[in-house]
Amino acid sequence: MFRFPSILIALLLAVSCFDIASGLEHWPFGCYPMYSLLYPKHFTLLRLYGVNDGGEFPMRGDASFPPFDGARVTDALARIPSSELPAALLNLLHLHNRTTPAKIRTLRLYSASWTLRPDVKGDEPPEQKVLVLEVSSFEH
Predict the structure, then answer these.
(1) Sorting pLDDT into bands at 50, 70 and 90, what band is 49?
(2) Which carries the bigger pLDDT value, residue 124 or residue 113?
(3) Which of 7, 22, 23, 35 has its CA at 20 to 30 Å from residue 14's CA atom?
(4) By the 8 A CB rule, do 106 and 97 touch?
(5) How confident is the model over 5-19, as pLDDT tens digits?
């Protein structure tokens, strides 16, 4: 009578221990290491900047490349092979100029870096910018 629940509990514990020890995750037996990652002191990501007659400015959010948001655009750019990156940036430049009233003549892709600190709010300018690629359009 009491054997079945005991065997079931022992089996569940064995599968959970196996998943934890092997690093595999078989739902619902995974170890779910939510906050167990150590992050480096410097954070780097790709950032797009537009250039118009007023100078250079960061391209952010849905307003720059509708219907895409800024995070998805730069994440997709990070996965594009470098040989296809100029065409992708030129397409983004044309998309921006077709869908927004504020036209830009140049689109720059930077590798931007920040030092991670507890007081960082997320809207600070990068501490370092390295130009990855620049494309220009002469259609105005």
Answers:
(1) very high
(2) 113
(3) 35
(4) no
(5) 888 888 888 887 887
Distance CA 28, CA 134 (A): 47
Specify the amino acid at residue 121.
K
CB atoms < 10 A from the CB of 3, how many?
A: 7
Is 134 in contact with 92 (CB distance < 8 Å)?
A: no
Structure tokens at 61: 């959010």
Region of residue 32 (left: phi > 0; alpha: psi -120 to 50; beta: else): left
Residue 61 has a pLDDT of: 67
Rounded distance, CA 111 to CA 41, Å? 16
**β-sheet bridge partners, residue 107:** 50, 135
